[in-house]
Write a structure and sequence with these properties.
Helix content: over 70%
CATH topology of one domain: Helix Hairpins
Order of helices and strands: HH
Structural class: mainly alpha
CATH class of one domain: Mainly Alpha
Strand content: under 5%
Number of helices: 2
Largest sheet: none
Number of strands: 0
Length: about 150
């Protein structure tokens, strides 16, 4: 009878941690993509607003309107800078998530290797035990067969 692998709870825990790290990295990638999409939208909006501003200048505009346009473009620039910071932070989070997943995968594979070695070791022990039983049975059969031949004589 094979012995259960004593580290099986750790194998299971390592698999759970690997799955959690995979899910977390997926979420971090989604957040990064969302931040990048927001940045693209802000940049496009600024570009469009700048074009509208340039067109309004050509047509002539009041000083108050000019100030409002410039203030709004400055706020857009500030939002773009903040979004760049958010993107950098999300990139760092994704890198951290990749490292965590790599570590979790390495640990899981290590425990899986130990489990496979245990299984192989148990198989070898079982094969030896079966061979020993077969040898004993063959020995008994040979003894019985030999005894029967001597009784016949």
């Amino acid at each position: 009878m094979t012995k259960p692998f004593s580290l099986q709870p750790l194998v299971h825990l390592a698999q759970q941690k690997n799955n959690a790290a995979t899910r977390k990295l997926g979420q971090l990638n989604q957040q990064h993509q969302s931040a990048q999409e927001k940045m693209n939208a802000l940049q496009q909006y600024r570009k469009d607003y700048q074009a509208k501003f340039q067109e309004s200048i050509k047509l002539g505009m009041e000083p108050a309107d000019l100030r409002n346009f410039q203030d709004f473009i400055n706020r857009l620039d500030q939002a773009i800078r903040q979004q760049k910071t958010a993107i950098e932070q999300s990139e760092n989070s994704v890198q951290t998530g990749r490292h965590e997943l790599r570590d979790a995968t390495r640990k899981m594979k290590s425990f899986d290797t130990l489990a496979q070695r245990h299984i192989e070791s148990e198989r070898k022990l079982e094969a030896k035990s079966e061979q020993r039983i077969q040898d004993e049975q063959s020995g008994r059969f040979a003894s019985l067969h030999s005894a029967e031949k001597q009784n016949e004589k």
